[in-house]
Design a protein that fits this description.
Elements: H1 5-18, H2 21-32, H3 37-44, H4 48-60, E1 64-69, E2 72-77, H5 80-97, H6 105-108
Helix pairs in contact: 2-5
Length: about 110
């Protein structure tokens, strides 16, 4: 049972990060390997400005970190266990609810 405020805050941060499809795609891309912002923007097909905002959110949530690499900055998951957690969450949701679609909260409450 979660009773410690810090446990709840950690889960809420992870939930906020996962609430946006672009941030989910970023986390999944970084699960595969560290990457540079320009490469991530190209891979995701979004502007660097938009990418920068999402990376800042993930940094603020403590899920990604930066690593200086010469004149460039590389992004990576803050902890390798996050990659395993993403895999576990993805497969658990598919296993439990593979025949259901999650609708947008604006359409029908929170799923």
């Amino acid at each position: 049972m979660l009773t410690v405020a810090s446990d709840i805050e950690v889960l809420a941060r992870f939930g906020r990060a996962l609430a946006d499809p672009i941030r989910c795609r970023l986390l999944l891309a970084l699960r595969e390997a560290p990457a540079y912002p320009s490469d991530l923007a190209d891979t995701l097909g979004i502007s660097r400005t938009r990418l920068s905002n999402h990376l800042a959110c993930l940094r603020d949530c403590g899920l990604v970190v930066t690593a200086p690499d010469g004149r460039r900055t590389r992004y990576e998951l803050a902890d390798e266990r996050l990659g395993h957690a993403l895999d576990d969450l993805r497969t658990a949701v598919v296993a439990v609810e593979s025949d259901r679609a999650c609708v947008d909260a604006d359409e029908k409450g929170c799923c």
